[in-house]
Design brief:
CATH topology: Metallo-beta-lactamase, Chain A
Distance between the termini: 33 Å
Largest sheet: 8 strands, mixed
Radius of gyration: 20 Å
CATH architecture: 4-Layer Sandwich
Order of helices and strands: EEEEHEHHEEEHEEEEEEEHEHEHE
CATH class: Alpha Beta
């Protein structure tokens, strides 16, 4: 993997809101604050999936992070919250699992990106046509390993697969401009993907023990190299780190975000921590490391697991908030 050092001119943003569109839990009996607003006008749908919308006050850009698992949740929740999908400017995906991109095709249909055919002057050149097409597409930033052919292996060596593979051609046919990047990718001022996250910590639970992928006629151990996070630098506050499942480990993810941004202060950590099947020893070690990082806000969502959430709530009560669909975090 390419070694990445500190990003030059990482940038910053002054105003950001992060709205959870899909998560595992929903509630109508939570109280809003000045910095966390809960949507309670009508019930929202919860499912085993994850999707959030980032809205940047400085630039007016709207960036979608992951796309849930079913159109029932993502599309219905957008409608109920009165969010127009056509106003989404970019999409980034944390990794290639179905519960983070299953509704993407449905979303692209809702965005109605494809233009009608038009007449062109005789003098038109291919560059002009390409630029016109690109204006009607939406960029989707994803690590190329997300499109590997996935398999699993039983204890007796029996292989099962191929598993779900993201339908890249279907997305392109519906107006997606697929941007493959192993490295950090700039989405907006002060907002980057991490790209590949080196595995340097104690964390092991996020990597499936029986996962394989097939390439060039051979099977390889699949360590989910595509797993990435978002880093946003908020002026005078610090980093907001947004994971999908944190298959690389949430401590690993946060430490790498600090390294490549060059910013030590972490203000918020939000997303899936993939501690749902972790032994208590690893959960406690994770919490011990997060305590040292000392974020002002920590929101374990999606695949974090009940035991881990309870421990975060008990041991970091001032920073902890429960992950709930419809929550908007205001920075």
């Amino acid at each position: 993997m390419t070694k990445i050092n500190k990003i030059k001119d990482f940038g910053e943003t002054e105003k950001l809101s992060i709205t959870v569109l899909v998560d595992n839990k929903a509630s109508l009996i939570v109280d809003s604050t000045e910095t966390i607003r809960y949507f309670k006008d009508e019930p929202l749908l919860a499912e085993h999936g994850f999707s959030v919308l980032l809205q940047f006050g400085n630039t007016g850009k709207n960036i979608l992070w992951d796309a849930g698992v079913s159109k029932n949740a993502l599309i219905d929740n957008l409608k109920r919250m009165n969010i127009d999908p056509a106003k989404i400017n970019k999409i980034a995906l944390s990794h290639g699992d179905y519960d983070h991109l299953g509704a993407l095709s449905n979303l692209l249909e809702q965005m109605d990106l494809l233009p009608n055919e038009k007449e062109w002057e005789k003098s038109v050149n291919c560059e002009q046509i390409d630029n016109w097409i690109k204006k009607h597409q939406i960029p989707i930033v994803v690590h190329p390993a997300a499109f590997r052919e996935k398999w699993s292996e039983k204890e007796d060596g029996t292989k099962v697969g191929p598993d779900f593979k993201p339908p890249i051609k279907e997305w392109q046919a519906k107006g997606a401009d697929i941007i493959l990047s192993e490295k950090p990718y700039k989405l907006d001022e002060g907002c980057w993907t991490t790209g590949y996250i080196p595995r340097q910590s104690f964390e092991k639970s996020g990597i499936p023990k029986n996962a394989l992928y097939r390439n060039d006629g051979r099977f390889f151990v699949d360590e989910l190299d595509e797993d990435q996070a978002l880093i946003i630098n908020i002026k005078k506050k610090g980093l907001v780190i947004l994971s999908g499942c944190a298959h690389s480990g949430i401590v690993n993810t946060v430490n790498y975000a600090k390294k490549i941004s060059g910013i030590d202060k972490v203000f918020a950590i939000i997303g899936g921590f993939h501690l749902i099947s972790s032994p208590m020893e690893e959960i406690q070690k994770t919490i011990d490391h997060i305590k040292v990082i000392d974020p002002d806000l920590i929101v374990p969502c999606h695949c974090s697991g009940f035991r881990a959430e309870c421990q975060f709530s008990h041991q970091m009560p001032d920073a902890f908030k429960e992950g709930i669909v419809g929550a908007t975090y205001i920075f």
